[in-house]
Amino acid sequence: AGLKPEFDKRGVKVLGLSVDGLGDHEKWADDIKQTQGNSLNFPLVADHDKTVAGLYDMIHPNANDTLTVRSVFVIDGNKKVRLILTYPASTGRNFDEILRVVDSLQLTDKHKVATPVNWTSGDKCIIVPALSNDDAKKLFPGGWDEQRPYLRVVDQPGA
């Protein structure tokens, strides 16, 4: 809820799913407001019979039935699942990582680059290996650092 402006900036819609009933959602929303200082500002679906959670394998296999859903799905505008993360109940989700992934997906969808390990917005990228050097020259006229034929490092497009 506190990161809504960051999701909005990226054109991302957030939807929550809980295996609790509607009454529990109201209590949960109040708990969030009191403990985190944020009001729930995204839709929250009640899946009290765990139909959706079961169909999509959203509950960590080692969790007991009373624990919360711990899966994150990133679905693009074409309704294609691009990322699935399932956390054990003992580990909090990392929304900075989710935003980083969204940034990477949006960048790599727009430009013919991939993002390396630990990449964050503004860091150097890798020209996709499928792009020939001749085609890369057109897209990246400033050049790149060719560390290997398949590893051509370039400044992030649009940064």
Properties at a glance:
two-stranded parallel sheet; 5 helices; four-stranded antiparallel β-sheet; alpha+beta; Glutaredoxin; elongated; 8 strands; Antioxidant, Horf6, Chain A, domain 2; 159 residues
Describe the protein's architecture and organization.
This protein has 5 helices and 8 strands; from the N terminus they run αβαβαββαββαββ. The chain is of the alpha+beta class and 159 residues long. It folds into 2 domains: 91 residues, 3-Layer(aba) Sandwich (Glutaredoxin); 44 residues, 2-Layer Sandwich (Antioxidant, Horf6, Chain A, domain 2). The strands form 3 sheets. Strands 5-6-8-7 form a 4-stranded antiparallel β-sheet. It has a two-stranded parallel ribbon with strand order 1-2. Strands 3-4 form a two-stranded antiparallel sheet.
Helical/strand content category: alpha+beta
* Low-confidence spans: none
Work out the helix count.
5
CATH architecture of the largest domain: 3-Layer(aba) Sandwich
Helix content range:
25-40%
User: Strand arrangement, largest sheet?
Assistant: 5-6-8-7
* Overall spatial form: elongated
